[in-house]
């Protein structure tokens, strides 16, 4: 292993699941499992900066004893220099996944994903420059948006809508393409601009929305109606 290896933590109450993930991850020269935890409380303790474990990416299960993945994600991502969290889920956990993203998770990974998809997800979220598994993420987000409460008539404009209103026309275009799972390179091709220009737009979008990364910005796009399911 080198100092540039991506350090991964596995948090799941099923030991066989962790063993399978570890086998796949440790087979890669640029990835290394440095920590395992069987529940959220154990993960929060082990990932405390004072514990001495440097972790880049956490694969976090949702349903676990002692402390579930939602609470653990919120506690871990609230810390300075927190690792990025990828939530392990299935489609029947819709409201839990959305809550995890709101709590600070950077993306989704379906538990029945192919090993190549898991490895790509870890590398992608570590880079922070693309949405994890665009097709799966988009389908899941479109499913999640169905469980969002409808707006009440006459309700005041919430901070998310106010932030979206501050975006320029080009920034809205970029955010819509992000929500459709397009990478920076693809967005640049769609809009006939340089990839560096796209990165600048993405940075400004994240800053205006107060989003930690692209996935959270995409959630805002769906929640505020900028992007509609199936659009």
In short:
49% of the residues lie in helices and 12% in strands. It has helices spanning 15-26, 40-46, 69-77, 94-103, 115-127, 134-144, 159-165, 169-179, 184-191, 195-209, 214-223; strands spanning 6-11, 31-37, 57-61, 84-89, 107-110.
Question: Could you characterize the architecture of this molecule?
Answer:
Keywords: DNA-binding, Phosphoprotein, Transcription, Transcription regulation. This is Response regulator transcription factor. The chain has 231 residues and is α/β, with parallel strands linked by helices. The chain is built from eleven helices and five strands; from the N terminus they run βαβαβαβαβααααααα. The protein has a five-stranded parallel β-sheet with strand order 2-1-3-4-5, with helices on both faces. β1, α1 and β2 form a beta-alpha-beta unit. α4 packs across α6 and α8 packs across α11.
Largest sheet: 5 strands, parallel
Shape type: globular
Q: What is the alpha-carbon Rg in Å?
A: 18 Å
Order of helices and strands: EHEHEHEHEHHHHHHH
Structural class, from helix and strand content?
alpha/beta
Percent of residues in beta strands: 5-15%
Give the strand tally.
5
**In which range does the helix fraction lie?**
40-55%
Between the first and last Cα atoms, what is the distance in angstroms?
44 Å
Mean pLDDT: 83
Low-confidence stretches are 152-156
* Count of helix runs: 11
Strand arrangement, major sheet: 2-1-3-4-5
């Amino acid at each position: 292993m080198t100092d540039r290896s991506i350090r991964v933590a596995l948090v799941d109450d099923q030991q066989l699941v962790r063993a399978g993930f570890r086998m796949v991850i440790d087979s890669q020269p640029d990835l290394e499992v440095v920590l395992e935890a069987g529940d959220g409380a154990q993960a929060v303790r082990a990932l405390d900066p004072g514990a001495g474990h440097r972790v880049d990416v956490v694969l976090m299960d949702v349903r676990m004893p002692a402390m579930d993945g939602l609470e653990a994600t919120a506690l871990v991502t609230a810390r300075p220099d927190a690792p990025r969290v990828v939530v392990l889920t299935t489609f029947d956990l819709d409201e839990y996944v959305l809550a995890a993203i709101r709590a600070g998770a950077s993306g989704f990974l379906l538990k029945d994903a192919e090993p190549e998809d898991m490895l790509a997800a870890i590398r992608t979220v570590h880079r922070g420059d693309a949405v994890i598994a665009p097709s799966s993420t988009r389908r899941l987000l479109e499913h999640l948006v169905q469980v969002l409460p409808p707006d009440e008539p006459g309700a005041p404009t919430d901070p998310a809508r106010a932030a979206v209103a501050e975006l320029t026309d080009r920034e809205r275009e970029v955010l819509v393409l992000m929500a459709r799972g397009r990478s920076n390179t693809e967005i640049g091709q769609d809009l006939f601009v340089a990839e560096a220009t796209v990165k600048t737009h993405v940075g400004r979008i994240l800053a205006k929305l107060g989003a930690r990364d692209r996935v959270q910005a995409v959630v805002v796009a769906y929640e505020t109606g900028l992007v509609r399911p199936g659009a």
